[in-house]
Amino acid sequence: MKKTRMPVLFLGHGSPLNAIEDNAFRRTWQELGRRLPKPDAIVCVSAHWETTVPALTLAENMETIHDFYGFPQELFAVQYPAPGHPSLARQIVELLAPNRIQQDPKRGLDHGAWSVLLPMYPAADIPVVQLSLASRQPGPFHYQLGRMLAPLREQGVLIVASGNLVHNLRLFNWDSEAPYDWASRFDQQLEQLIEKAEHDQLAAFESLGPDARLAIPTHEHFLPLLY
Fold first, then answer.
1. What is the layout of strands, in order, in the sheet containing 102-104?
2. Residues 42/117, Cβ–Cβ less than 8 Å
3. Is 138 helix (H, G, I), strand (E, B) or coil?
4. Tens digits of per-residue pLDDT, 125-140?
5. Are 159 and 149 in contact (CB under 8 A)?
6. 92 in Cβ contact with 46 (< 8 Å)
7. DSSP string covering 103-136, please?
8. Which 3 state secondary structure label does DSSP give 44?
9. 3-state DSSP: the chain helix, strand, coil percent, rounded to 5?
10. What is the largest CA-CA distance in the chain?
11. Tell me: the pLDDT tens digits for 55-79?
């Protein structure tokens, strides 16, 4: 029986509290989990596992990593004990050849992964493999890795990329919910590029102008979009 072709998701994970608070973000992720076909496995690319070369989780039992501080104890108590999928990880190594891919037998899921997966699949019964972000590599490198992962979609594998389109905590205004003009303009610019499938321009995000430089002072939260 032919499997349903799975989508690719880019989710702006925002604050770790979105994993447990009742808000529009969490409710949207819950709705995605209900609406999409249930995947056989998930491959997640998160802004919060940065490496020099790409790496994959190889653990059979995934640790829940609480890689943040200053949040309520309730958040640190959250566990997402999804199983790993070593055989899928080894298949991904083959798919991404000739790129050198490291395999980490101990690494678990960081909050960029479990904070969005928990609302989507609260039973934690879907095997997960996390692919690290080789954040020193340029945009086209990540876009090409995403293209190389595409055959997994025909095998019931959901690809989830987790980051943020705008991520500049140094300029974050804690006293206002209104976005900066440059943030809104950049968000609209990306929306247009995505709708027009201008993938080369998205991969060359460093040339998108001054709004991009404000929105992406560091690259790790933007790069998952390219997958």
1. 8-12, 157-163, 41-51, 128-134, 55-57, 102-104
2. yes
3. coil
4. 999 999 999 999 999 9
5. yes
6. no
7. EESS--B-HHHHHHHHHH-TT--S-EEEEEEETT
8. strand
9. 40, 20, 40
10. 54
11. 999 999 999 999 999 999 999 999 9
